[in-house]
Amino acid sequence: MTLPIENLLQHRHLWRATDGLQAERGTLGTGFASLDDALAGGGWPADGLTEIIGDTPGVGELRLLLPALAELSQRRQRWVAWVAPPWLPYAPALAAAGVDVKRVLLIHPKHHQDLLWATEQALKSGTCSAVLSWPDPRHLRHADLRRLQLAAREGDSWGVLFRPEAAAEQPSPAELRLRLAADPECCDGGGLRLRIIKRRGGWPSEELPIRFDDLLTRRLAGPEQAAALRQLALWQPPSSSRAAPHRSIGSLGSIESRARRTAAIAAGQRAQP
Amino acid sequence: MPQDARQQERPLWFCLYLPRLGLELFTRSLTDEAAAKPAALIAQHRLCQLNSAAQAQGLHPGQSLATAQSICPGLAVAWREVDREAAALAHLADWAWRFTPRVSLAPPDALLLEISGSLRLFRGLDRLQQQILTGIRELGYSGLPGMAPTPLAAVALARAGLCPDLEVLAAELDFDPLGCEPLGNGSLRQAWTEAVAKAVRPLLAHLPLDQLDLPAAEQQRLMAMGLRTVADLLRLPRKALGRRFGRQLLDHLDRLTGRRPDPREPVLPAPAFNAELHFLEDVSHKSALAFPMRRLIGELANWLRVRQLASNHLRWTLSHPRHGEGHIEVRCAEPQRDPVRFLELSRLHLERSAGLPEVAALALRVEALEQYGGRADTLFPLPGEEDRDPTALIDLISARLGREACFGILPANDHLPEQAWRTLMPGRVSKGDRKDLRAISETLSGPESGLERGPRPLWLLDPPQPLTSRDGRPYWHGALTLQRGPERLDVMPWSPARLPEPCLGPRDYWVAQHRQGGHCWIFQNRRNQRWFLHGLFA
Fold first, then answer.
1. In a 3-state reduction of DSSP, which class is residue A196?
2. CA distance B397 to chain A (A)
3. Distance between CA B396 and CA A123 in Å, rounded?
4. What is d(CA B465, CA B467) in angstroms, rounded to the nearest whole number?
5. Does some domain include residue A249?
6. Among A22, A141, A266, B288, which residue's CB has the most CB atoms within a 10 Å radius?
7. What's this model's pTM, rounded to 2 decimal places?
8. Using the beta-carbon criterion (under 8 Å), do B456 and A76 form an inter-chain contact?
9. pLDDT at res. B516
């Protein structure tokens, strides 16, 4: 016979300090051993909100998620939804990374309210294994984040929000918050520096280096590469690119302009025989 | 023909009389609360049908509109339209098809159902009657039953309000009307038809002559002769009656009593769902359409369920005599028949649509019908099992954001990066697509893929964004550092013409790093030496 208190302790929303990182909640392996070790349960929270914070697009934010997305798209008969992505997710690259592109769903709302609605619906529908969303940082309120977090729990879905650097100082109900920055030591695109701002069952972490092993890094610059560059008279030793960032690439364009651009592309694509 | 076989074939007619059909065409679009207010139907400036609230106010049929409005100032009125009533009756005949395949019309305001063949399925006449009357009430009409072995008698009894009490009949039949039938196969039908025939005979005999569907002049002559009931008429010698009133009266009497067969043409099931609702007062708020929409969708769902059909295309028509018509098309990814989803999608489409300033009638038409595939429910659902329909989300999103706001992507077999992918309707992956995808995935992740082609970015910019350059060096938020390349891709002359002019020509692709550490995919057009940003490695 079990006591009521034991039943209560079994509840998945209850975390005890003595449990340490061995929480019972479902998690997804990140594909990066150093990150897995740092996260509660050894991976991304399978139902809940994760925030990826950073101002530099192209620093490796998608490659960080790709192993988990590939795994989800292969394993579950559910959508991987992208809400208002700043550019087009490129299908051949996704397929090469092992993502089942049949499960990819692109949603392009025209303004912020629709974006929040679409993200919430996707999260709580129970038919999306992951929802990636790029909200407008100017209009995102704390209450919206709470709604999304609850929707993610309800729909058993992994919500990923991409937010700018300024959001790092604001409180958030997200399960996990990560701050990404380029790694000046691997200028070949092979890694990034990651700092955990918030995690379940732990304190904010030190900087963790992440190393990628993919097509971009595998084709290292050989001697013939340098020769070709020299021919163009553009060769620079890699060290000179370490100059401090002086201007933020920051703005991804308004949600509306993204939707318009994508709608035009989609219309053009559909018009083809 | 043997005696018992003829008895087996004895018909049993059920008449569903709709005394307030014309009025209820309007009031059934109202919620229960709103329907409790007095309302009346007007024909030729006089009241012809009233609801119970109006009757309680002291109004009665035949009063002039002016009198009625002075007695009851809040009276809501609608003008009678006979065509509309006929259309509604035909729609109801289609609805009644669920109880028996032999449904026919008794215009202007009654339906005739031959139900002797359905008694066993519905386990007794009492239960069948209960289902019919509950069903018609749920549609927003009030119906009165009439039962007899002949259609004319059934109609006459229903109009006169003389229906045999089924509980008494059941008691006579010596079985519990609530329990299971103790009688064997076939005898249930026989017992009920016998009982009804027996019960109907005295009722019919006392039926006043003015309830018969006879010409008015003939009725007056009969009254003048002192004849009041059907029994009076039947007592007279047949020959003399025929001489005096002609063949027609005899014929009518014979069909009434069953001496002469009275075949009725059955209504055939409609090939499409078509239902309309009319409003007592013009509706100017979209939110006020929610209830009428739910009512029509409920009817649609029942209609589809009975026919084992499903649909993925609903067509709403809002109309108003002054503002014309507005249409709302609701499409779903998969044919279905779930009223909850239909309602939610219709509501979202309605919110988005421009609509009309005022609406006087709402119609729903569904033509694209498919066989319902159905989904098997699991007896013991396991946690984490995929039990929800993945297309529900697509329908929901495209209902609010538009169909073009939601799509899927696939790689395509083309060397030109902007042609190497395509969009598709989410989830609509054909067999050919699957084969292509497998082939492309193999080349993408195969052993020699890394040798043949350079890396591909996760973000694509389409069209390529022109970059500024200084001394032939590309700039994007600071100088870009070329890291690896070149990968030469040529744009063939026959490539689609939608590429902007400066992008045409052989391209050298490079991976470059920008000042903030991210990597981008850029190319130089060898023809005009200009640089373009084509993707980002994220």
1. strand
2. 7
3. 13
4. 6
5. no
6. A266
7. 0.70
8. no
9. 77
State how many domains chain A has. 1
In angstroms, the CA B51 to CA A12 distance is: 57
C-beta of residue B333 within 8 angstroms of C-beta of residue B280? no
| pLDDT tens column, B108-162 | 899 999 998 888 888 888 889 999 999 999 888 999 999 999 999 999 999 988 8
A133/A117 Cα distance (integer angstroms)? 11
Q: Give the pair of three-digit tokens for residue A71.
A: 């795994």
Contact A99, A80 (CB under 8 A): yes
Chain A interface disruption, residue of B347, B389, B393, most A CBs within 10 A: B393
Interchain contact B161–A (C-beta under 8 A): no
A160 is in which domain, residue-wise? 33-215
Binned at pLDDT 50, 70 and 90, residue B450 comes out as very low
SS3 for B394-406 is HHHHHHHHCHHHE
B419 touches A at CB < 8 Å = no
A93 touches chain B (CB under 8 A): yes
Token pair 């946690």: residue: B383
What is the phi-psi region of residue A183: left when phi exceeds 0, alpha when psi lies from -120 to 50, beta otherwise?
Answer: beta
Q: What letter does residue B103 receive in the DSSP assignment?
A: E
CB nearest A221 (choices: B397, B483, B537): B483
CATH number, domain with residue A102: 3.40.50.300
Confidence of residue B178 (pLDDT cuts 50, 70, 90): very low
pLDDT of residue A243: 37
Asked if residue A90 is part of any domain, the answer here is yes
Quick one: angle between helices B82-96 and B125-138, nearest 10?
140
Enumerate residue ranges in chain A where pLDDT < 50.
21-23, 219-221, 233-250, 270-273
From B400, B429, B472, residue closest to A117, measured CB to CB: B400
Q: Is B422 touching A (CB cutoff 8 A)?
A: yes
- CB contact at 8 A, B160 and B207: yes
ipTM of the complex: 0.80
Start-to-end CA distance of chain B, whole Å, equals 88
| Cβ contact A122–B397 (<8 Å) | yes
The pLDDT of residue B7 is 43
Per the prediction, chain B carries an average pLDDT of 83
pLDDT for the residue numbered A270:
47
Higher pLDDT, B305 or B500: B305
- Helix and strand tally (H, E) in chain B? 19, 21
Is B272 part of the contact surface with chain A (CB cutoff 8 Å)?
Answer: no
Q: Cβ B516–A249 below 8 Å, yes or no?
A: yes
Picking from B397, B444, B460, the nearest residue to A95 by CB comes out as B444
Q: List residues bridging with B317 in a β-sheet.
A: B327, B363
